[in-house]
From TrEMBL:
The keyword Flavoprotein does not apply. It comes from the Bacteria. This is LysR family transcriptional regulator. Belongs to the LysR transcriptional regulatory family. CDD domains: PBP2_LTTR_aromatics_like (cd08414). Keywords: DNA-binding, Transcription, Transcription regulation. It holds the Pfam family HTH_1. Gene3D superfamilies: Periplasmic binding protein-like II, Winged helix-like DNA-binding domain superfamily/Winged helix DNA-binding domain. InterPro entries: LysR_HTH_N (IPR000847), LysR_subst-bd (IPR005119), WH-like_DNA-bd_sf (IPR036388), WH_DNA-bd_sf (IPR036390).
Length: 310
């Protein structure tokens, strides 16, 4: 049995007239009659009574009409779903993100994408840059949002945002009440808490470069994977640290944030593995690229600056 047999039968059964049905199907009447006859022979069931006066459905024909309509409707639905999956508009999407991107970038991008693609099931994971790279390489992640640059040649990057750095200081620190920008050199003799380089080279290297530009290497007394933990360590008077501007969203009554006078920036990027992309991931990447270029995705306001939006 072929699908065209079902479609032909449905039109004939609804019209109860071979001439009108043939016209709707854009075929001649004799081949249509033969197709219905072949269907009945294959099923070994009489579906239609036809004579010179009328065409009518048998009881079996009435039942089969309902079944055929349901079959075609279900198939059409599955074809539409298959097309949407192939277009990346259905399916699942696993996204990794690091640090303070959860405060501004991820909510904006994910909300906008979900608004236009409600059929995509998104899974979010907060991971270090290094853990995201592992996930992208081993296909447990589709897309990552991390700190640029990344040296692994298997990973493609699109720089999205850059932001200034701030010093995170204990509330009683000598610089806590300073109203002007802080010179990083003023933190030369402090104990520092910092994320380890193994968690992500981009962020760590930017902080070290900032210190190096001021002529010193930070004296790191403790490390932590997450920026929220670094803030807690500063609050506990374990040392000072340098964080991206957006980290000020991490509220703690025992710390203050002071902007640093430096040209070095933290750069956030979207990352993916071109060799392991699902249709949904490919569509998501195109959506973000297009949205950033056209300005249709809401951008964070200053002090963030989009690499693509100027």
């Amino acid at each position: 049995m072929e699908l065209r047999h079902l479609r032909y039968f449905i039109v004939v059964a609804e019209q109860l007239h071979f001439g009108r049905a043939a016209k709707l199907l854009n075929i001649s009447q004799p081949p249509l009659s033969n197709q219905i006859k072949n269907l009945e022979e294959e099923m070994q069931v009489q579906l239609l009574v036809r004579n010179n006066k009328e065409v009518r459905l048998t009881p079996a024909g009435r039942h089969f009409l309902k079944a055929a309509k349901k079959c075609i409707a279900d198939l059409d639905k599955e074809i539409a779903l298959t097309q949407r999956i192939a277009q990346g508009k259905e399916g699942t999407l696993s996204i990794g993100f690091s640090g303070t991107l959860s405060f501004h970038l991820i909510p904006t991008l994910v909300k906008e994408f979900k608004r236009h693609h409600p059929g995509v099931d998104i899974h979010l994971q907060q991971l270090t840059t290094q853990d995201q790279l592992v996930g992208l390489i081993h296909e447990s992640l589709d897309v990552g949002f991390l700190v640029s640059p990344v040296a692994d040649p298997r990973i493609a990057l699109l720089d999205i945002f850059e932001e200034r750095f701030v010093a995170c200081l204990p509330k009683h620190h000598r610089l806590a009440r300073q109203t002007s920008l802080i010179d990083a050199a003023e933190l030369r003799d402090e104990h520092w808490v910092l994320t380890p380089r193994s968690a992500g080279h981009g962020y760590y290297d930017a902080v070290i470069a900032l210190c190096d530009a001021s002529g010193f290497t930070p004296h790191v007394v403790q490390t932590a994977q997450e920026q929220q933990t670094l803030v807690a360590l500063v609050a506990a008077d374990m040392g000072v640290t340098v964080l991206p501007y957006s980290a000020q969203a991490i509220k703690n009554d025992h710390v203050v944030y002071k902007e640093i006078d430096a040209d070095i920036r933290k750069v956030s990027a979207m990352a993916w593995n071109p060799d392991h992309l699902t249709d949904t991931a490919r569509h998501f990447i195109r959506y973000i690229e297009t949205g950033l270029n056209e300005g249709t995705i809401e951008q964070p306001t200053e002090p963030y600056r989009s690499h693509l939006g100027g």
